[in-house]
Specification:
By secondary structure, this protein is α/β, with parallel strands linked by helices. The chain is 41% helix and 16% strand. A 7-stranded parallel beta sheet has the order 3-2-1-4-5-6-7. Helix 8 (216-223) crosses helix 13 (322-333) and helix 11 (285-293) crosses helix 14 (336-351).
Length: 372
């Protein structure tokens, strides 16, 4: 394929699962000199930042109504999905490279992908919590892509060993640190937490969508007996947390909803520690956010988290071990120097290997090999 002028890249996220990632990647690729269009759907939870050097097209699910995650909205999206994928396939003839971030219906979407252009997929959540039947579906789908990107060595290895992808088609490109979130000024805390900030509370933050595999129950067991600090649990629940809330001590504060980027920034800026005690993970946008803020991290020793520990940017504990988690939290709360060492390593990663400039350069290099 002969390319005249800048390489035309389509970044595609039909369900708008990861708007911050889409925005940061597209902006970085544009700064790298690529001509970038993002094809996605309207984000139901918040207003997004304006495109920065790229064009955004809300081509998918244009008639979906209802609140985010509601049954009405899901039904409307299901009805529109195939026509919208076919509409995008027609639009893709303008692209030199098509780079999918997510696919809404993996069992079907392999038949709806564009043809005649190199296809790239970022496997943001490589094979986690997938049964054998689902993995067979993903193997058929992923085989249709010319390149599959994982965010960590651990994720790349799983794609090769568990899904049987050819190592030559699997590429490791880190998740970029969300510096555009950290650059906000005078961001307000969620009102549910503002009184704690006024009291000057020492804060440990657990942030993100609340899901069973993320170890919230482990953290709450570990928190028993921790005094002179507050645990802030911030994020929209995706499972029933009423019993966990009822059993939590008074110094656990809850914001069980989607929060704005400004509220997010205020929470990370206030936290002395960010704790992610996941039972399984490949890589995490929350961890990437913490890197951007220079947060001291306590992470489970699994997947891509282990690689952050190897870089000195996180204290690692065994997954599911509440006692070890409590010991790490108590030790780091009492040791500002150790926290600062973790913070310095996080900032170094955010400015280096996890910078969007580095991510864009590696992604553009991958595109170039596919177009050569």
């Amino acid at each position: 394929m002969r390319i005249v002028g800048p390489v035309k890249v389509h970044v595609v996220d039909p369900p708008a699962y990861t708007p911050p990632y889409d925005h940061a990647l597209c902006a970085a690729l544009a700064r790298h000199g690529l001509d970038v269009d993002l094809f996605t759907s309207a984000f139901a939870y918040a207003e997004l930042p304006p495109p920065d050097g790229y064009a955004r097209h809300e081509l998918f699910y244009r008639h979906a109504r209802g609140t985010g995650g509601s049954r009405v909205r899901r039904a409307a999206k299901a009805a529109e999905h195939v026509p919208d994928m076919l509409r995008y396939r027609a639009a893709a003839h303008e692209a030199d490279i098509v780079h999918f971030q997510w696919l809404t219906l993996p069992g079907l979407d392999g038949q709806l992908l564009p043809r005649g252009r190199p296809l790239v997929l970022t496997a943001h959540d490589a094979l986690l919590r997938e049964g054998a039947r689902r993995r067979a579906t993903l193997k058929r789908l992923y085989s249709r892509f010319d390149a599959v990107i994982a965010h960590s060595r651990a994720g790349a290895e799983r794609l090769v060993t568990e899904l049987g992808l050819s190592p030559e088609r699997v590429h490791t490109i880190p998740h970029g640190a969300f510096t555009h979130l950290a650059n906000q000024q005078d961001a307000p805390l969620p009102p549910e937490l503002d009184d704690g900030a006024r009291r000057g509370a020492v804060v440990v933050l657990y942030f993100g969508l609340l899901r069973p595999h993320k170890g919230l129950d482990v953290l709450l067991r570990a928190w028993q007996g921790v005094e002179h600090a507050e645990l802030w649990i911030v994020g929209r629940p995706r499972f029933e947390v009423a019993q966990l809330r009822a059993a939590a001590p008074p110094n656990v504060r809850w914001v069980p909803r989607f929060v704005s980027d400004a509220e997010l920034a205020a929470c990370f800026a206030r936290a002395e520690l960010v704790v992610l005690p996941y039972r399984e993970i490949e890589q995490s946008g929350v961890a990437a956010t913490a890197l951007a803020f220079g947060s001291a991290l306590v992470l489970s020793d699994i997947g891509g988290f282990s690689e952050l520990g190897e870089a000195g940017a996180a204290r690692l504990v065994p997954p599911g071990d509440a006692q070890a988690l409590r010991a790490a939290i108590v030790e780091l709360l009492a040791d500002p120097k150790a926290r600062e060492q973790l913070s310095a390593a996080a900032r170094a990663l955010a400015a280096g290997a996890a910078s969007w400039e580095s991510v864009a350069a590696k992604t553009a290099a991958l595109y170039a090999t596919l177009l050569s």
